[in-house]
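Below is a filled-in request sheet from our internal design queue. Each sheet records the structural input a requester submitted and the sequence that came back. We keep these sheets so that new team members can see what a complete request looks like end to end.

REQUESTER: design group, bay 2
PRIORITY: normal
MODE: inverse folding
CHAIN LENGTH: 283
BACKBONE (tokenized):
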């Protein structure tokens, strides 16, 4: 299948935390529709996992939480990467049986299904094509958005069908609404150390580490120079980037401090606020 882009020496997104309106409703959705399992549970907080030990998504219902605001920076979608094409086929078959409304695309590098959770948080569930088939033009990878061939995908399904997220599921990437692409590129590439791998004109930027098609997507589809979401609004609370070693992480911290970013250290985790009000943990 090629290289593993979600381990050392790459840096990658490992997990995220979402603010939601109703913890019980969200747990039902993420268990029943997406196929997560609950790893830890408190009254207004739940940690979700695919393998029974690794946290991928944390749901919190804050006091005084309010509905998602339009035209703000924040989460566009988070993306769960499945280990096999047969898993995506089984997932699609499950969604058909449950009559769940979806979007679906073929991006050449991957095949993807899109959903919205009860609080309008975007979710992508996808599988990568073999990286030997990705097309590179110097340092830019070819990605497109074509209709998914659902009929062909479904033929890859198994007799057992969908049993929930398989153990090998990981957080493949995160895609964010930002207010300015040039500012985003400066922070995420010059600062955090990612490489640009695709540009969609002046609309979106895709960045990665180690030659992946993208670990982070950045777009201005919610508008240019939009404000950050209110602290009590549903949506992204924070997400975690894993660095391959302390040296790489410390160098990134120095670079983003030089850019004027706000950085604090809590135990062994650096907490950074990006230029658009989004909180990132550097692990």
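RETURNED SEQUENCE:
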């Amino acid at each position: 299948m090629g290289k593993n882009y979600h381990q050392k020496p790459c840096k990658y997104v490992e997990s995220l935390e979402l603010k939601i309106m109703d913890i019980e409703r969200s747990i039902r959705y993420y268990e029943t529709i997406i196929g997560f399992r609950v790893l830890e549970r408190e009254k207004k907080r739940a940690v979700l996992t695919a393998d029974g030990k690794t946290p991928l998504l944390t749901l919190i219902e804050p006091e005084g939480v309010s509905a998602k605001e339009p035209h703000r920076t924040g989460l566009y979608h988070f993306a769960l990467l499945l280990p096999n094409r047969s898993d995506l086929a089984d997932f699609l078959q499950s969604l058909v049986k449950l009559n769940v409304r979806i979007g679906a695309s073929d991006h050449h590098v991957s095949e993807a299904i899109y959903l919205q959770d009860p609080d309008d948080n975007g979710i992508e569930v996808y599988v990568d094509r073999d990286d030997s088939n990705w097309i590179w033009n110097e340092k830019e990878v070819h990605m497109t958005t074509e209709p998914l061939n659902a009929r062909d995908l479904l033929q890859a399904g198994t007799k057992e069908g969908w049993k929930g997220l398989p153990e090998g599921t990981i957080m493949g990437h995160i895609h964010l609404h930002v207010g300015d692409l040039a500012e985003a590129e400066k922070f995420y590439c010059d600062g955090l150390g990612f490489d640009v791998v695709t540009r969609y004109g002046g609309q979106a930027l895709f960045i990665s580490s180690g030659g992946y098609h993208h670990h982070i997507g950045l777009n201005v589809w919610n508008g240019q120079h939009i404000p950050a979401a209110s602290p009590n609004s549903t949506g992204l609370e924070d997400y975690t980037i894993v660095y391959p070693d302390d040296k790489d992480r410390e160098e990134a911290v120095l670079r983003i401090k030089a850019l004027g970013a706000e950085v604090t250290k809590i135990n062994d985790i650096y907490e950074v606020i990006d230029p658009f009000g989004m909180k990132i943990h550097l692990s």
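SHEET NOTES:
- The mean pLDDT is 97.
- The two ends are 27 Å apart (CA to CA).
FILED BY: M.R.
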